[in-house]
Specification:
4 helices
């Protein structure tokens, strides 16, 4: 189960990286066009709408990978002084809370996809429908739910932990 979660999270993060690269190219082209107004060029119409929508999708695509790699920031002023069993309890408790938050987020995002599709709401400038952006984020959230569930189950010892020598144990800040 953890190997499948790892594969899903990795491919989702790669797709997020490709999308983020395209967003960066869009921003460079748009800003360059603004700088070259005197030469007949201009900004990309609706650039901020595209950046806004794609950035939200990229976040949903990156979070499962970050979570699986223990990449979330952690403030551990007291944590490092706890005995090992209490540290483990805090980690498991926070994993359960994260899973619950992610399930609620995914549920509400699924509802939003349906509403955006039914209402046929569009962006202001490009008049593109919003629902595909919400659907892409929902796809990332569903994969995230699976990854968060797999990692939480591994913390409880119900599924085998991911054994990957390339994974660091995470860094506490």
């Amino acid at each position: 189960m953890m190997n499948i979660a790892n594969s899903f999270a990795r491919w989702l993060a790669i797709a997020g990286g490709v999308l983020l690269t395209l967003v960066m190219v869009l921003v460079v082209v748009s800003v360059s066009g603004r700088a070259l107004l005197n030469f007949g060029l201009g900004p990309v119409p609706g650039d901020f709408e595209l950046v806004e929508m794609c950035t939200a999708v990229v976040v949903f695509f990156f979070l499962p990978w970050c979570y699986l790699r223990d990449g979330h920031a952690m403030v551990d002023l007291a944590y490092i002084h706890f005995p090992r069993p209490l540290q483990r309890a805090v980690t498991v408790f926070s994993d359960v809370l994260m899973l619950l938050a992610w399930v609620v987020l995914t549920w509400r995002l699924g509802i939003a996809v349906g509403e955006k599709y039914a209402e046929q709401e569009t962006t202001f400038i490009l008049q593109w429908p919003l629902w595909p952006g919400y659907a892409a984020g929902f796809f990332g959230a569903v994969i995230g739910c699976f990854v968060y569930m797999a990692k939480t189950l591994s913390e409880f010892g119900l599924v085998k932990r991911l054994e990957d020598p390339r994974i660091s144990a995470g860094t506490h800040v």
